[in-house]
């Protein structure tokens, strides 16, 4: 049964109230951050807090811990500490290519947690194909778009439409789909602008992302709605499954359904959608 990844809530591992709150929230994934949301002086203490929180678990929510980058004083210790922890994945920030991911895999161990990579540098975007081609050895499971860091490096002016990021986001989705990876859109910094969040969620869904990374509990419901199957999609999927289950269609590859051509590739799509629903 596939696990949904509609809403992935970041929270600083240094914030015990947020950790406690996350266990009550309807997000699909919790990402405990050891990187940008944690001040340098709090890194060591936050790593211990994250390990403790992982041991206690987050119920049905998947748990991912974002380590510090390997070129910082904390990254290697983070990865080594996460090697035997009961996390669903370790998220490595600022992955520039397969070399950094291989270093992380060596520290996490061959049998250690799966790896997720943040694609948030220009080199990282250029290296997507090489990185993803190494998926089996890296045990790479997911990609996350780091839109703040990308906008910073590309020197983009503020743009709610994210126009300049569109081609990069498409590349991430293509790379993820080519190698069977989960792929999540970047965060929306506008905490009090529901319209902007709604627009970004709709945009991410149209681009093919599985879900969105989030920074506040108030962003979970809009993401769950946008990235979950809609009632129309569920009705369509049920109709497709029923049509192909009809013995009259048993030998057909393509059929007419409600004025549309439907093929067996749509049946697979419909079955996946119903499993997620
Ligand atoms: C952004 C915040 C600092 C805002 O904090 P604040 O104004 O204090 O929030 P509220 O008062 O509205 O909080 C209300 C209650 O909700 C809890 N809360 C808030 N945020 C979270 C959260 N993310 N997860 C769980 N719970 C949360 C508060 O504790 C309050 O609870 P209670 O006191 O019990 O009522 C803050 O929201 C925050 O820290 N957000 C996460 C920031 C973060 O993790 N950033 C790093 C990831 S994003 C990133 O790095 C981008 C990427 O790399 C890129 O390049 O794009
Ligand atoms: Mg970043």
TrEMBL record:
Keyword RNA-binding: no
Signal peptide per UniProt: none
SUPFAM superfamilies: Phosphoenolpyruvate/pyruvate domain
Keywords: Lyase, Magnesium, Metal-binding
Binding site for substrate: 66, 120
Domain HpcH/HpaI aldolase/citrate lyase: 6-217
Molecular function, one GO term: magnesium ion binding
Superkingdom per UniProt: Bacteria
Family: Belongs to the HpcH/HpaI aldolase family.
Name of protein: Citrate lyase subunit beta / citryl-CoA lyase
Naturally occurring in which organism (per UniProt): Sphingomonas carotinifaciens
């Amino acid at each position: 049964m596939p696990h949904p990844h509609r809403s992935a809530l970041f929270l600083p591992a240094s914030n015990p109230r947020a950790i406690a709150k996350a266990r009550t929230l309807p997000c699909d994934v919790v990402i405990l951050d050891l990187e940008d949301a944690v001040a340098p002086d709090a890194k060591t203490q936050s790593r211990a807090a994250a390990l403790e929180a992982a041991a206690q678990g987050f119920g049905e929510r998947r748990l991912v811990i974002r380590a510090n980058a390997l070129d910082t004083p904390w990254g290697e210790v983070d990865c080594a500490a996460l090697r035997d922890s009961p996390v669903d994945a370790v998220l490595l920030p600022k992955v520039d290519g397969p070399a950094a991911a291989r270093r992380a895999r060596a520290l996490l161990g061959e049998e250690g947690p799966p790896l997720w990579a943040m694609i948030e540098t220009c080199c990282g975007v250029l290296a997507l194909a090489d990185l993803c081609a190494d998926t089996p050895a890296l045990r790479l499971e997911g990609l996350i778009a780091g839109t703040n860091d990308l906008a910073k490096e590309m020197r983009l002016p503020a743009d709610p439409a994210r126009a300049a990021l569109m081609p990069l986001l498409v590349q991430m989705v293509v790379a993820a789909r080519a190698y069977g990876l989960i792929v999540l859109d970047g965060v929306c910094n506008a905490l009090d602008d529901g319209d902007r969040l709604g627009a970004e969620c709709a945009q991410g869904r149209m681009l093919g992302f599985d879900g969105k990374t989030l920074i506040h509990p108030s962003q979970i419901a809009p993401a769950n709605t946008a990235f979950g199957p809609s009632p129309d999609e569920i009705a369509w999927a049920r109709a497709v499954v029923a049509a192909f289950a009809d013995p009259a269609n048993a030998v057909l590859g393509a059929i007419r359904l409600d004025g549309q051509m439907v093929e067996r590739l749509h049946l697979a799509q419909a079955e996946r959608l119903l499993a997620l629903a």
